[in-house]
Every structure is written in C-alpha cells, then in structure tokens.
Amino acid sequence: MGVVNVTPDSFFDGGVNLDVDAAAASARRMLAEGAAIVDVGGESTRPGSAGVPLDVELRRVVPVLEELQGLPVSIDTSKAEVARRALALGAELVNDVTALRGDDEMAAVVADADAYLCLMHMQGEPGTMQAAPRYHDVVSEVAAFLEERLRLAVAAGIAEGRICLDPGIGYGKTVEQNVELVRRLDVLLGLGRPVLVGLSRKSSLGRLLGDPDATTGSLAASVAAAVAAFERGAAILRVHDVRETVEALTVAEAMLA
Ligand code: HH2
Fold first, then answer.
1. At residue 92, what are phi and psi to the nearest 5 degrees?
2. Most buried residue among 47, 50, 162, 202 by CB atoms closer than 10 A?
3. Active-site positions?
4. pTM here?
5. Ligand 1 atom index nearest CA of 43
6. Nearest CA owner, ligand 1 atom 10
7. Ligand 1, closest atom to CA 13?
8. Where does the pLDDT of residue 113 fall: very low under 50, low under 70, confident under 90, or very high at 90 and above?
C-alpha cells in the first residue's frame, strides 16, 4: 500500500502531494512500482496534530480521487462523508485510524458500499497520544481492542472477509511497545484477519537508531521494518517508498517463503 498524503503537514510527505497533479502522479508512480493499492489521505494524524474540518479534507482528496478513478485506491479518513464521496469515486477500501470510533455513520457507509475496511488501534487522540502511552500488556490490549472493533463492524453489516486489522504503530505507543507489537504479530494474526502494518518512515525507527528526538526514520530502516513485519506475517505494508520496499519484499519472499 503506497501512501499519498494530500496535506501540507504530514510527518514525512507533507506538502509533496498537496497539488492534485503531483498527488495523482505519485499515486500512478507507486502503482507502476508495484503497489497493490494507494492510500489517499487529506488529514494528518501524526502525533500532535489537530485534525481538519470536513470541507478542507474533501477539497484536498476529491480532485485527486477523480483523477485516479479506475485505479486501486484506499481512502485514509475517519469521516463518513469523506469515505462516502471516495467510495462513490471508486475507492475500494476505507482506512479508518479510529476503527469506526470517529464518526457514528462510518460503519453504515462501509457496509452499504460493501467496501473493504481497515480497523486500526490507537490509544488516545493524535493531539496527545504520545504524551504517556500506558498498557499492562500492549499486545493483548491491542488484540482485545481489535477483536471488539471487528465484532462491532461485523454486527454493523460489514462482511468479515472484507476487514483487515492494524496494530497502529506510533499511535499512543512507545518505541518498545511498537517493536513488541511487530515481534508478537502472531497474536494479532490469531484474530483470523489479514494484518496491515505501517512503520514506514516513522519516528520509532529513527529512535531505534539512537536519536531520541527523531521525527522520522530513514529509508533503510523503513525497508528493514517492512521486511521484518512481512516475516512476522503482515499481509499489507503501508509505505512511502514503494519501489525499494517491493524490491526488498520480493527478495525476502523468495528466501523466507
Ligand atoms: N499511519 C499513518 C496514517 N495512516 N493508517 C493505518 N492503517 N496504519 C498506519 O500505521 C497509519 C495510517 C501515519 O503516516 P502518514 O500518513 O505518512 O502521516 P500523517 O498522518 O502525518 O499524514
């Protein structure tokens, strides 16, 4: 899954794809480089972010989605109206980082469209989530949360076979907790759904390399993280650097499968 943020402030590609033509070109390039789908988003949820109003998010993503009609697209949003418009324009998957907690109408929008859905774990809210992440056992708590959200989604009429689960790397978690979630990914796989992991360029990678103030991670660190998550069973890797990740995963798959 290639990342296309139509935002001025995303933590890694902020501003790069704010222009419609640039965003569409990035998406097409990622698909040509081997991405199975591109994840278009109009709101940053990086630590400390405040969110954007509906009209701003729509203004950012709708023209890009219009350009990408006919191509495999995912919409990264927690707003039902954004999801509705995106699905009408051909998006296939709704990537909701709030796991249906952000908008009461989201479940019905996904169910009515028979769309794919990604449910992600987050402790707290983007504005404050990194202040003091707290868990008794991060892996079992994330698994319990995702199991509960999966049940709720299915009860709302979304086909279980259309749902994937995501531990939410960096969303209210320390570096150690993020590492633990990947190391013990088998627990999440035990829920019986494909698991999506997004480690690409995240600050935890820079911090693992020894910079306690890192806000991003390097390309090499991101590729290593994708391979590690793949080896632990992740089915979908959400990445900014598609070509390099596809190359690494192709070799890893040949040797690890
Ligand atoms: N991470 C980001 C955004 N959306 N969605 C899922 N399912 N999983 C993730 O790990 C995930 C996500 C953050 O990355 P990015 O989109 O590059 O940054 P920003 O939120 O600043 O736009």
1. -105, -25
2. 202
3. 202, 238
4. 0.98
5. 22
6. 198
7. 17
8. very high
- 64-100 tens-digit pLDDT: 999 999 999 999 999 999 999 999 999 999 999 999 9
> For residue range 117-127, what is the model confidence (pLDDT) as tens digits?
999 999 999 99
Mean pLDDT of the chain: 97
CA of 127 to the centre of ligand 1 (A): 14
Residue closest to 84 by CA, chosen among 113, 41, 104? 113
Rounded to whole angstroms, how far apart are CA atoms 189 and 162?
15
> Exposed (0-12), middle (13-18) or buried (19+): which is 63, by Cβ within 10 Å?
middle
Q: Interior CA angle at 145 toward 144 and 150, to 5°?
A: 100
| pLDDT for res 257 | 75
